[in-house]
Amino acid sequence: MRKILIKVLAILCILTLIPIFSACNSNEQQTNPSSASGFHTITFNTKGGSKIADMTVKHDSFAKAPTPPTLENYVFCRWQTSEGRAFFFDMYTVEEDLNLEAIWIKADDLFSLAAMPDSNGIMITDIKRQEDFDVLYVPEIINGKTVEGLGAGAFESVIPSHASTIVFPDTIRYVEENALASISEVNIVLNGTISHIEEESFFGNGLITKITLGKGMASIPYRAFSTCVMLKTANVPEGVTTIEENAFEACERLITLTLPSTLTAIQDSAFEECTALKTVFFGGTEEQFDNLSIADGNEAIENATVYYYSEEQPTSEGNFWHYDKNQTPTIW
Description:
Layout: H1 2-31, H2 33-37, E1 39-45, E2 55-58, E3 74-81, E4 86-87, E5 98-106, H3 107-110, E6 111-115, E7 122-127, E8 135-137, E9 141-142, E10 145-150, E11 165-167, E12 174-175, E13 187-189, E14 196-197, E15 210-212, E16 219-220, E17 233-235, E18 242-243, E19 256-259, E20 265-266, E21 279-282, H4 286-290, E22 293-294, H5 299-303, E23 305-309, E24 320-323, E25 329-331
Parallel strand pairs: 1-5, 7-10, 8-11, 10-12, 11-13, 12-14, 15-17, 16-18, 17-19, 18-20, 19-21, 20-22, 21-23, 23-24
Antiparallel strand pairs: 1-2, 3-4, 3-5, 6-7, 9-10, 24-25
């Protein structure tokens, strides 16, 4: 009888302890719920900038960087943790919940500015101080004025340790002499339509892959794109009559070139050493192309396959092209 009583008491003790252990385990999970679920939350304090939604990220994985916030008259610099440590999305995995804060620099402190010569907008003429950006996002509006231009030599001083990429607003249309020259290791994102360039505007820019030029230009200036070794596609707009000396010299990866019907002259060595050029889309007729004045040093043009513009599908044989619905040159 005594043995039976001891066994009953032991069972009761065990049953009493089970809820305690369960509660402890439950409390442990509640104190770190994101760790238990395998996910973490990133919240963004934009310090007065545009809002960014919270992000849920799997433990020990990389998060995709959000589109940076914007704040009038300020330039976004980087994200940092609440402890003051810079956080780069392509370098650090997420190990815990994070509260990231935006770091801003006053645009007036970073850029020198001047009035545009032909509008009420402004241009950036210089970088006053070097900061460590991952990506430098140039704002569209500064002090209530639209940023439309890049002054002579404005970004020549930028080096990869200060910014691996510069993203310009689509409002940029005016690029002065050497504004983006000799930037050989900084990626340039310039998606706006450029309507004014000068000599050596992009000379030696080693990472730019494409450029969109708009109407309003009479010529492509001397060495404007010379030694842009990653440039693959160039579209010279209608209205241009002359491509000046060495304009695209040594663009060794240039594959596709679109030329306007208004073109009358390609000067000395404008396309010298453009050894990859395969296709030329000409905006006029074959007769117009044959009447072009093509100077020495442009064998790349002469050796490429030339297609002539036809809005409607031709009924005769020949090399013809048109624009598709996306305004991309397409062979008939």
